[in-house]
Amino acid sequence: MMNQQAHSSAGRIFTRVLSVVNIGVYAILLVMVVFFSLFAKGFFSFANIINIIRQVAIVGIAAFGQAFVLIIGGIDLSIGSIIGLSGVTAAILIRDFGIAVPVALLCGVLAGTLVGLINGLVVARLNIPPIITTLGTYTIVRGLSNLIAGGMSVFGLPASYKILGTGYISVFPIPVVMMLVVLAVLYLVLNHMPFGRYVYAIGNNSKSARISGINIPRVKQLVFIISGTVAGIAGVILSSRLDSGQAVPITNFEMDVITAVVLGGISITGGKGRIMGVVIGVLIIGVLQNGLILKNVLFYSQMVIKGPILLLAIGLDMLTKKSVARLT
Amino acid sequence: MLTEAAVNNEYLLEFRNIKKAYPGVLALDNVSFGIRAGEIHALVGENGAGKSTLVKILTGVTQKDEGDIFIEGRPAAIKHAIDAINLGIRCIYQELPLASSLSIADNIFLGQELRRGLFINRAAQHLYVKKYFGEYAINIDPARLVGGLSVSMQQIVAIIKATMTELKLLLMDEPTATLGEKETRNLFNFMKRMREKNLTIIYISHRLDEIFEIADRVTVLQDGRYQGSRKILDISKNELITMMSGKDIHDSSLIYDSARQKTDQVVLEVRDLSYESILKRVNFVVRRGEIFGICGLVGAGKTELLKCIYGLLKCRSGKIVLEGKDITEHKESSKDRISVLGLVPEDRKGEGLFLDLEVLTNITIASLKRLLGLIFVRRRMEASLGDRLITELGVKVSSKKKAVRVLSGGNQQKVVFAKWVGAGRKFLMLDEPTRGVDVFGKLEIYKLINKLSREGISILISSSEVPEVLGICDRVGVMKEGCMVKIFERNEFSKERLLRAMIAED
Question: CA-nearest residue of chain A to B334?
C-alpha cells in the first residue's frame, strides 16, 4: 500500500521532470551512465562524479548565460574569446601591475561584461543580427587577448591565484560551487523576475512583445551583458585552474557551450526551454568526456563520437515530440 | 434525353444550388448563377456575404455541402486544389506565389524551364516573355528581378505564369486593395487585353468605381444568398448598394447596450493626422465610456490609424492628445501612452499572443510590474490575478498552465483582452476583434466589450464588418482611402448609409 503510493508520487514527479526537459536527452544520459558504470572502471564513484561536475563547471557556467541568448532568439559566439580575455586580463593585472588577486579576478570578469555590453549595443541599437555581431567581437576579442598577453601565455602568478580553480569548500571543488551559484541566480532571474518573462516573450514573438509594452532593446542588451559576464566568470576560473592567462585556453569552447544548451532542450529558434534542462545537457557532455577518457579513447576519436550523440539526442527529442503531438 | 435542368451552354461556369454551412453559420444558401465565357464578372457583397467561400469552393480549398458546378456544360468535381488547376481555374491572391529574387522570365518558367541540354535556355525564355509582353504593350526587361517590380506588375507576372498551363477562368480577390491609382490602371489595361483574348475573369472587389469601369456583369451576394446578376450597363451605383445592403435586419438591439454611462469628456483627440500617403488629415475624438467604431474597406487605413495612435508608426503630421496630454512625439513605450492604451491587434496570433507560452504568462505579461515583490514576481498574486481575469472574461480553458496555442480563436482573443484589463488600461483599441472567431465566440466578445465599457473603459473598435459596428458602437467613423469621410451618430445608423460612405464616391 505504502509502496504503491510512493511509487505513484515518484511516477508523477518523474513525468513532471520529463515534461520539463525532453525525454530523448534523459534517455541518452541514462544510457550513458549505465554503460560507463558497467564498462568503465572507476566511473561510478562519488569522487568521479564530483570530478565530472568539476570538469563541466566551466562549460556549465557559460551555458547558463548562453541559454538566455538562445531563448531570446539570438546566439553569442564571442564567449569563446571572452574566456581568453578575462583570464589574460586578470593575469596581466597581477603580474605587471601588482593588483591584488581578488580585484584582478573581478576585473577579468568585468572584461567579459564589457564585451557583452558592446554585443548588446550593436545587436539592440544597430539591429545587427547576433550571429554577425558576435562573430565580429569573437575575432576582435581574440586578437585583443593575444595583444595584451604579448602572444604568449602569462605565467608567474602568485600561489593564491590557483585557489579559485583548484580549491575546495569542504568536499566540493570551488568551480562546482561557483557553477551552482550562477545556476541558482540565473534560475531565479529567468523564472521569477519580470525580466525573465520578457526574455521568453521576446523569443516567442517579438511583435507581441513590442505591443505588450516590453522594451525590447533593453532586454536584449541585458541578455548579452549576462552572457558576457558569466563567460568572464568561466574565463577567470579556467585561468586559475591553468595557473596562467591564455588568449585561447580552449578551442571551440563556444561550440561545446552551444551544444550543451541545445542538448538541454533550449530551442535554437528561441522562446522555449528551461535552464534546468541545460544542467542535463551539460552533464551529458561531462559524462561522455569522462567515460571516454576512462575508456582510453583518443581525443580526436572523442570528437568523432560527440557529434552523433548530439544528433541522436536531438533526433530522439524531435521524434518523441512528434509522437506526443500525435497523441494529444 | 436531357431534363429540364439541361446544360446551359451560354455559361462557361455555372453554380447550381450551392450550399455550404460552417458551424453556426450558413455561408452559402442555395446560390445559383452563371459566368459567361470571355466576360469580366464582378462578385460583390459585404464581408461575410459568402464571396470568399465561393472562391474556396471553386479552387478546391474547401468542399461544398450540396449543389453542382458545371464547367462548359459538364459537371465538375472539385475535390482538391489540383482538380481546379486541371480544370483551368486559377486564383490570384494578395500573396503572390512568386520568388522575388528570381527574374520575371525565371518566375514564369519556374518548374517548366526551357532547356538546352543541362542548362536553362535563358535566351529562349526571354524571347518568349518579350513576345508575350509585346502583345500586351508591356515594356519591361524579362531579366529584371520580380522583387523590384511594382505590385501590379507582379500580379501581371503571376497571371502570365498561370497562363503557361491551360487557363480558362481567373479569380481575382481584391487585387487592387493595396494598389495606387496608377498601378490599378496598369492592371486594368492588362485585364482588358486578356478579355480580348477570351479569358474569363471573376473579379471580387468592394470598390464600386472599379467595378463600373472594368466589369461586364455583376453578381451580388448578401448573407450567403444570391441577390441577382445584372449587366453593368443596366444598373446604377445606388441600385447596386441597395442590393448589397438587403434588408436592415441586423439584430443590433440584442448587442447594443444603451444603459451604459456616457460622458462628454474627451479621452482621445486625433487632429489632422497624416501618415505616409496612407492617412490623410484624420480627425475625430473618443469620449470616456464611449464605444467608437471605425469602419472601412481593407486598405482604407484603419490599422495604420490605430498603430499611429499606439506609437508603432510615426505619423507625418497632426496631433494625438490622450487624456489631455499631447503624445504625438512620444516614444512607443512612453508612460503617458502605455499607462492608458491597450491594443488588441488584428493579427491575433502574430502580434497579440505568445502562442507557446502559458495562458497565465500571456495574461500577466503587461502587469508584472504591479505584481512585483522586492525583486521577484509574486507567484501567488499572479495566479490569483490570472484566475480572476479568466473567470471575469469567461476564458474557457482547463488549466491556466496550458499553452495559449491550444485555445479556440474566441478564447485566444479573450486572453488578449485579459492582458490589458489586468494591466488596468482605460482605453482599448480593438482591430478587427472578431476576425476568425465563430458566431458564438463573436457574441461572447460583444458581451465582453459591453461589459468593459460599463466598467468605464473607453473603446475604439476598427472593423470592416458593417453589422458589427452598427450593432455595438455609439458612433461610427467611416474611412475611405485614408480619409475619415463621415462620422455617424447612433440615430443615423443604417447599413446602406455606411456602405455608401465606405464604397461609393461622394
Answer: A213
Of B245, B276, B303, which marks where a domain is finished?
A: B245
In chain A, residues with a C-beta closer than 8 Å to the C-beta of B357 are 200-201, 204, 271
Q: What percent of chain B has pLDDT over 70?
A: 96
CA distances in angstroms from B419 to A322, B306, B312, B344, B360, listed in the order given: 31, 18, 19, 10, 9
- Cell 508603432 sits at which residue? B312
- Which residues sit opposite B68 in a β-bridge? B16
* B277 half-sphere exposure, CB direction, 13 A CA radius: 4
Query: Do both B268 and B223 map to the same domain?
Result: no
Please measure the distance between the N-terminal and C-terminal CA atoms of chain B and give it in whole angstroms.
54
Residue A109: what pLDDT? Answer: 98
Nearest to B356 among A192, A215, A272 (CB): A272
What are the pLDDT digits (tens) for B159-203? 899 888 889 999 998 888 777 778 888 899 999 999 998 899 999
Name beta bridge partners: B40: B201
Question: Cell for B421?
Answer: 484589463
pLDDT at A247: 94
Answer CATH for A23-318 from 3.20.20, 1.10.3470, 2.30.29, 1.10.3210: 1.10.3470
Q: How far is CA B272 from CA A254, B318, B322, B328, in A?
A: 54, 5, 15, 12
The residue segments making up the domain with residue B61 are 11-245
Contacts of A208 in chain B (CB under 8 A): 350-354
- What does pTM read for this prediction? 0.83
From the centroid of its chain, how far is CA A274?
Answer: 13
Whether B390 is covered by a domain: the verdict is: yes
Q: Give SS3 for B230.
A: strand
Rounded Cα–Cα distance for residues B44 and B205 (Å): 6
* Intervals of chain A under pLDDT 50: 1-7, 20, 325-328
* pLDDT computed for residue A18 by the predictor: 52
Optimal mutation site among A211, A327, A328, interface B, most CBs of chain B within 10 A:
A211
Report yes or no on B111 lying in a domain.
Answer: yes
Tell me what ipTM this predicted complex has: 0.84
